[in-house]
Specification:
Blueprint lengths: L1 H10 L13 H17 L4 E2 L2 E4 L12 H7 E4 L4 E4 L1 H6 L2 H9 L7 E6 L2 E6 L4 E8 L2 E9 L3 H13 L5
Parallel strand pairs: 2-8
Antiparallel strand pairs: 1-2, 3-4, 5-6, 6-7, 7-8
């Protein structure tokens, strides 16, 4: 089963958008940050005819936007200290591909569903999740990350089947 899954993943063009994971983390964070800044300045990230915007409040420790920090970090343990996660960093460019290409082309591997008040966009092919929160003037990108845990994947399947939305 896992071999078939890897075969499907390698066929997806979105995988080619990832940053080069062989680079040091500090270099990858800088590259990802440039892409994130482009997202903020770019008015072409649109979902269901509404603009996607980001949390641009500055993080007092990193001096980068909270939205960016949230996407590239992962909380570990009970201390809830966010640590940079290389896997999240290298996947940041995929956000644009999924929003601009997969959503617009109505990819069969894409599941869009509600989870409480949030809208989840899950690419099953590459196991990547984007979470949006609807606002009056568009959608706030709350977070986006690769799904790495089996229990999370199972939860997404269940929620997608229960709350599926049409693109």
């Amino acid at each position: 089963m896992e071999t078939k899954r890897q075969e499907i993943i390698t066929q997806c063009d979105n995988q080619k958008s990832k940053l080069d994971e062989t680079k040091p983390l500090n270099i990858l964070i800088d590259e990802a940050y440039k892409i994130f800044k482009k997202y903020i300045d770019d008015d072409t990230l649109i979902f269901k005819n509404k603009k996607i915007f980001f949390n641009i409040k500055m993080n007092k420790y990193s001096f980068r936007e909270q939205g960016f920090e949230h996407i590239i970090t992962k909380d570990f343990g009970k201390t809830s200290i966010p640590l940079y996660d290389k896997n999240r960093v290298i996947h940041l460019p995929i956000i644009e591909k999924i929003i601009k290409q997969c959503c617009n082309n109505k990819c069969s591997e894409l599941k869009v569903f509600k989870d409480k008040k949030d809208i989840c966009i899950w690419c099953k092919r590459i196991d990547f999740l984007i979470i949006l929160s609807e606002r009056n003037n568009g959608y706030l990108l709350k977070t986006a990350y690769p799904v790495v845990y089996t229990h999370k994947r199972q939860s997404l399947k269940r929620k997608a089947n229960e709350n599926d939305l049409l693109l």
